[in-house]
Amino acid sequence: MDEKIILLVEDNPNDEALTLRALKKNNIRNEVVVVRDGAEALEWLFGTGAHSGRDAANLPQVVLLDLKLPKVSGLEVLRAVRADARTKRLPVVLLTSSREDQDVITGYDLGANSYVCKPVDFSAFAEAIRQLGLYWLVLNETAPRRA
Amino acid sequence: MLTYRSIDGAADTLERMDHTSKVLRLLDEVNAVYSRSASARRAYVVAGDASQLSDAPVQDARLASSIAAARQLVADNPEQVRRLDLLEQLYGRRISELQASVERRRVEGSAIESADGLALTARIRAAREEMVAEENRLLDERHARTERDVSRTKVADVVGTTASLAILVYVFGRLRRAERAQRNASRFLDSIVENIPNMIFVKEAAGLRFERFNRAGEELLGVERTDLLGKNDFDLFPREQAEAFQLRDRETLASRVVLDIPEEPIETKAGERWLHTKKVPVLDEAGVPRYLLGISEDITERRGAAAALRAAKDAAEAANQELEAFSYSVAHDLRAPLRAIDGFGLALEEDAAGRLDAGSTDHLKRIRRSARHMGQLIDGLLGLSRVTRGDLTREKVDLTRIAQSSGARLREAQPQREVELVVEEGLLVEGDARLVTAALDNLLSNAWKFTGKRPQARIEVGRLEQEEEKPVFFVRDNGVGFDPNYAHKLFGAFQRLHGAAEFEGSGIGLATVQRIVRRHGGRIWADSELGRGATFYFTL
Predict the structure, then answer these.
(1) Which of A98, A104, B34, B310 is deepest in the core (most CB within 10 A)?
(2) Per the domain annotation, does A75 fall within a domain?
């Protein structure tokens, strides 16, 4: 089932634990790979640096990408992902703290597929994750991979 | 023999013309210098503008030297000397009177010009006109004498001279009229060029030597025109600068179009000044450039002010960006721990539900509720700071439609409530659509909230019937109202007039509304009777 990997890019351990819990609660049992900053996310995706040796052709089903990250920000990760032929169709969902975030708009401009607001009210977040799971992992086919 | 005397007379007349025009020009200059001296002081006395005060003594000194020069010219005419003395005395009185007003203003903070001032000014004008009239009269007299001489010779000596005499007389008559007209025109032009407050210079096209230079130019560069006329830029400026000036002069002359130099630094005796210069090629009838006319305005102060304005704007923008960054981190960083509190609280509730007693379950719920409340407070603060940022764009806004859709949203959130919402038709106003919507949303959700305990809630949005300049809109409800004694606290951030147990809320909504209204230059106020509903009025 390595095709169903979810890449979670999240630096806050609490948010990481809560996201994993929300996924599990919603019966999304896919393998979740967690990286904690934007630089590592890119290394993982492209099989470089700390993740050299990983097969870059094996893309995750979806990337859950926090906007505010150390080193390389979420938007920069998104820009790099969209700029690379291998990953430009990779589904990317932005995680953000604020609905009003200007970065969400920028994120859409850069080609984000969706975004999930991480509100203070956790049940709302869990509900959003539930819908996200259905949408990306069940209903939505990923773009056909190029040979 | 014929012509000897008459030519002699003619020469005399021409000399007299020249003399007269010199005297008149000097009188003009005297008066111009006096006007500057007087207006420098009046600017301070009347308007408190002290910027020219330091110029006044300079002009006073020039006044004295100009009068001295004029006195030399009229020395042969005791009457004119007497008039000049009177004129000098009157100028002196007027200036010392103005100086007294300056001192008074400096000490007392204000000063009224004395009524004598006007009378003095009139006497100055009269004395000056008398001198001018006398000069013109002398000129006429001299001329009449020449003409008489000419006719007398004509009678005495007839042979072969009649024709030439007639020609001479005719020519003289024409010459005199033409000379006078030309003299008037050129005096007029001279005084305009002299009094224009911008530097004006004229260079001849061949050698680019200065042909003409005005007073503003002398003052700006700190040179006398005698030091400059007949010279070119290489005599006056450093080599490099002179080369640059001349290159542009030649280009302008060759292109035959006006060159506009919006800003350019120039070294003067008083240090560097910035000029806005226009260079104009002056062509002759054949279209050949003969002169280069330059007009320069000293924009040093304006430029400084613009730079200061830019700096202030940059600082404001930097502060705004800082605020933006601050809001971002408030939104992001403060929410994260709250999310953890609420999220792990929920996890505990779900996982340990069976093992907790009723009290502990209640505590857990309170913890989660508090975290969520703090989340709302943060949202409110962010909203409040958002309305002060960004540009305000005014457009036609339909309050009726905004109120109706806002009401629809509230109804959707609480479909079980029975609320009668009455919105007057055609409530149009100029305002920023985004901000006005936020304000109306806040007012309506307040009304919705505080009518929560009324079985027959009624909310009304409309416009007051009255003839004020700006339309007054209102949002009225029949809810619990507020104690009018605390009305002044309504619009403060975090001010609440109802207990949290009674009505939920962050206490930021009305502060936000007020900020929006004020950004539009409007006013907001409210009246109420406790238990009988409240009405909020606003203008935009």
Answers:
(1) B34
(2) yes
User: Which residues does chain A have within 8 Å of residue B343's beta carbon, measured at their own beta carbons?
Assistant: 14, 18, 21, 122, 125
Percent of chain B past pLDDT 90, that is, above it, reads 23
CATH of B391-540, one of 3.40.50.620, 3.30.565.10, 3.90.1150.10, 3.90.550.10: 3.30.565.10
Q: Is residue A107 in some structural domain?
A: yes
Report the candidate in B513, B491, B337 with the shortest Cα–Cα distance to residue B441: B513
pLDDT tens, position by position, A108-128: 888 888 888 777 777 777 787
Whole-prediction pTM: 0.46
Total number of domains in chain A: 1
Between CA A20 and CA B84 the distance in angstroms is 103
CB pairs under 8 A between A and B: 58
What confidence tens digit (pLDDT) does each residue in B453-482 have?
888 899 999 998 876 678 899 999 999 888
Chain-chain contact of B346 with A68 (C-beta, under 8 angstroms): no
Angle between helices A102-109 and A74-83 (to 10 degrees): 10
DSSP output for B467-516: --SS--EEEEE-S----GGGGGGTTSTT--SS-TTTS---S-HHHHHHHH
| Residue B41 near residue B99 (C-beta atoms within 8 A) | yes
CATH number at A53 reads 3.40.50.2300
Alpha-carbon span B405 to B388, nearest angstrom: 24
For B352, the 3-state DSSP assignment is coil
CATH topology of domain B196-298: Beta-Lactamase (3.30.450)
ipTM of the complex: 0.77
- The verdict on residue A121 lying in a domain is yes
Minimal-distance CA residue of chain B relative to A97: B332
Which residues in B lie closer than 8 A to residue A100 (C-beta atoms)?
Answer: 331, 382, 386
Task: Give the C-alpha separation, A60 to A63, whole Å.
Answer: 7
Q: How distant is the Cα of B373 from the closest Cα of chain A, in angstroms? A: 9
Q: Do B336 and A12 touch (CB under 8 A)?
A: yes
Say if A67 falls within a structural domain. Answer: yes
CB contact under 8 A, A120 and B339: yes
Structural domain B307-389, CATH architecture: Orthogonal Bundle (1.10)
Residues of B in contact with A15 (CB under 8 A): 336, 339-340
Domain that holds residue A109: 2-139
Please list every residue in chain B whose beta carbon sits closer than 8 Å to the beta carbon of residue A14.
Answer: 336-337, 339-340, 343-344
